[in-house]
Design brief:
The complex is a heterodimer of chains A (about 400) and B (about 210). Chain A has 2 domains: about 30 residues; about 280 residues, Porin (Beta Barrel). Helices cover about 10% and strands about 50% of the residues of chain A. Chain A has a 16-stranded antiparallel barrel with strand order 2-3-4-5-6-7-8-9-10-11-12-13-14-17-18-19. In chain A, strands 15-16 form a two-stranded antiparallel sheet. Helices cover about 10% and strands about 45% of the residues of chain B. Chain B has a single domain, classed as Immunoglobulin-like (Sandwich), CATH 2.60.40. Chain B has 2 helices and 17 strands. With about 210 residues, chain B is mainly β. Classes of the chains: A mainly beta (about 400), B mainly beta (about 210). Chains A and B meet through helix 1, strand 1, strand 2, strand 3 and strand 4 of A and strand 8 and strand 9 of B.
């Protein structure tokens, strides 16, 4: 009986959605303009996301909230412009409560803007300049709400570690126990989301191989504020790259690497005498693989990272995830993701070797229903378990309703 | 043997009157909407991007004779290919019951789907050389909007009609529909998802009617 009521409800929503869908299709046409005999074509599009999170404190991942039930709306606007066949420009602007889900007030940001030049039609070489997502790994192409099978990112993109970019601990003990006393936003993950740092990249395809290298103003672990050139110049750049091999349409393999200093300028007074922020770097090695056939998609990424930490030494971590998505019907898909992150041990200065952050595993399960090509409802449950340290668990329930236009 | 003969007669006779008498024709012009510019392809997170030219799809209309006509035993299989990140053809009129193949002629994946009430399907991702070529049978009349889950800008249309008498206009809007049965009918011109014009016509054998849809 309940199933029938649910089916009727979904049917009613779908019927209503088709009216809205027709409007959104017309809006799409209205928001596309062209000039100079079609040589300049511009399209404005976007998404409206309404998210609700329910979790235990401390909030998991990069969620920055003291409230256990968080409502997080987000309006994202995209501008895509094609000038002739060789020049492409895009920008992404967001109105939300912060880059990551938070209980703060509203904020408008220009998260991405880039100019891309593709001199040859075959795609062998492309140069891009601006503020844009990293070329490392294979999560970036699906990180937006419409394309991401989940509501949040994989663990390695959002699990905050003991690394701080604004302050250098004065002892190993302070480094180890800092996360218990400081707010979460003082710390960094291995890769902060899609890492929209500023810089330049070159990329291209040569047969079954593709390449991409970038020079950015901030490391992969850097916080969103560091990505702006107005905040952070190119005195201490980060270099990253990805080398890909695609034997056919189904498989895609990639090797990524990145290295660059991870401290912000304000950390300089806390560094050991005679040292500067360029002496402490983040090194990342990544391997990624993806497979797709018919209604099944699989992704996996493996990352080994090293942070050079003042007064502590090298702090190493290994993180990976395996993700699968399957479309059960044209409108319903399910996804499952297993994430794990392991940390090396360091000396606490008192003769004990301890993990520099708690090892943890997390399983995410999601289901999504697309009412129309413009409307989607996603539900997610995540269970996170720390296997070392305090051994804290966290249950995350999240729902996300997206309208794409 | 006798039974086979009867079956053969039964199969041929319903077609005969139409085939023998279908000699009227309609021609004219449909006023087409203004040409839309080529879509903008979102390439924000593609490491590899090729040239950004996508062709403009000139508007076309489908002119058809509305009525109830016998369903043939078999229908020719049609194709809507994915080539250069567009649907080719971008508009395909077919009769109810037609099987349509969706070959992928690009060197990248496509994921063709439709949420249209007349036919919901999702072909998933498949290679260029995949055999058999993914197909769908369109068994309800209506408009099917084809999209690609990977390439947001891609749009294609399949107009599923109950009638066997239909033709696509050329890019100037001109059409000629031949081999029509005599009688009174409604002639319709499908222009886009929101615009279908219609005119009553009385067709006579051996005559050509001129109908314009302003």
């Amino acid at each position: 009986m309940k199933l029938h009521a649910f089916s009727l409800c979904m049917l009613a929503c779908t019927a209503c959605a088709f009216d809205v869908d027709d409007f959104l299709d017309r809006l799409d046409t209205a928001l596309s303009i062209s000039a100079f005999h079609d040589n300049l074509r511009v399209r404005l599009s976007g998404t409206l996301d309404l998210e609700i999170y329910q979790f235990e404190q401390p909030a998991p991942g990069l969620i920055d909230s003291n409230i256990d039930t968080l409502f997080n709306p987000r309006l994202t606007l995209f501008l895509d412009a094609q000038i002739g066949s060789q020049i492409y420009f895009f920008a992404q602007s967001r109105l939300d409560r912060r880059f990551d889900p938070s209980d703060h007030g509203a904020q408008v940001r220009l998260d991405e803007y880039a100019l891309r030049v593709t001199p040859w039609e075959d795609g062998r070489f492309t140069v891009q300049i601006g503020k844009f997502a990293t070329v490392v790994g294979n999560w970036v192409p699906r990180h937006l709400s419409w394309d991401n099978p989940f509501i949040n990112g994989p663990l390695v993109y959002e699990n905050v570690t003991a690394i701080q970019d604004k302050y250098a601990a004065f002892s190993p003990l302070e480094f180890l126990y800092g996360p218990y006393y400081e707010g979460k936003y003082a710390f960094n993950p291995v890769i902060w989301g899609p890492s929209y740092a500023s810089g330049i990249s070159v990329s291209g395809q040569l047969g079954k191989f593709d390449y991409a290298v970038e020079m950015k103003n901030a490391s992969l672990s850097s916080r969103p504020e560091s990505w702006y050139v107005t905040e952070n110049g190119f005195e201490n750049p980060t270099f990253s790259g990805r080398f890909g091999f695609r034997p056919n349409e189904a498989w895609n393999f990639g090797l990524s690497a990145s290295e660059g200093p991870y401290f912000r300028r304000e950390a300089e007074p806390t560094l050991p005498p005679g040292r500067d922020i360029d002496d402490y770097r983040e090194f990342v090695l990544g391997q990624d693989v993806s497979f797709a056939w018919r209604h099944l998609q699989l992704w996996a990424e493996f990352y080994e990272a090293r942070f050079e930490v003042p007064r502590v030494g090298n702090a190493d971590t290994f993180a990976y995830y395996i993700e699968a998505k399957y479309k059960f019907t044209p409108q319903l898909f399910g996804a499952i993701r297993w994430n794990q992150q392991l940390f090396s041990t360091i000396s606490d200065g008192y003769g004990h070797n301890v993990n520099w952050s708690p090892d943890l595993g997390r399983i995410d399960i999601a289901a999504a229903y697309r009412f129309t090509p413009h409307m989607q409802l996603k539900l997610q449950y995540g269970f996170q378990h720390e296997t070392t340290g305090p051994g804290e668990d966290n249950h995350l329930f999240a729902a996300q309703f997206t309208i794409r236009f | 043997m006798r039974l086979r003969g009867l079956l053969w007669l039964n199969a041929v006779f319903p077609i005969l009157p139409v085939a023998l008498l279908a000699s009227a024709a309609v021609e004219g012009r449909v006023e087409l909407p203004k040409s839309l510019s080529a879509p903008v392809q979102a390439k924000r997170y593609q490491i590899v991007t090729k040239g950004g030219v996508l062709s403009t799809q000139p508007p076309l209309a489908v002119v058809y004779l509305e009525g109830s006509f016998p369903q043939p035993a078999s229908l020719q299989t049609k194709q809507v290919a994915q080539k250069d990140l567009t649907f080719v053809p971008s508009l395909l009129p077919v009769r109810v019951g037609t099987k349509v193949q969706f070959p992928n002629l690009d060197d990248t994946y496509h994921n063709i789907f439709s949420y249209s009430p007349a036919k919901r399907f999702d072909l998933g991702r498949y290679r260029t050389d995949e055999r058999p070529i993914p197909t769908q049978v369109f068994d309800k009349p209506g408009l099917i909007i084809l999209r690609c889950d990977i390439h947001e800008h891609m749009r294609g249309l399949i107009l599923v009609l109950s009638t066997p008498y239909f033709v696509m206009t050329d890019t100037t809007g001109h059409f000629r529909l031949e081999g029509l049965p005599a009688g009174r009918y409604i002639l319709k011109a499908w222009i886009d998802s929101r615009t279908t014009r219609e005119r009553p016509v009385e067709l006579k054998n051996g005559e050509t009617f001129h109908v314009d849809f302003p």
